[in-house]
Specification:
This protein is mainly alpha-helical and 65 residues long. It is 77% helix and 0% strand.
């Protein structure tokens, strides 16, 4: 079931990636709901995803703290 939540989180983040503010808010929500090992997986995914969308890189502050 945890894989489902992680995949759902990724799909939400992809959908809101047009707006950095909304992306930041959704990322904060995800960190509150995901388990520690899922957050690690999300971090890896985020680094790759934001490489293609540099305007979202400032949002990585949330996951690095």
């Amino acid at each position: 079931m945890t894989k489902i939540m992680l995949d759902y989180t990724k799909s939400i983040l992809e959908r809101v990636s047009f707006d950095p503010t909304l992306f930041y808010k959704e990322l904060q929500k995800a960190i509150k709901t995901l388990l520690p090992h899922e957050i690690k997986q999300l971090k890896v995914w985020l680094i790759k995803f934001t490489h293609r969308k540099p305007e979202l890189k400032p949002c990585l502050v949330v996951i690095n703290s």
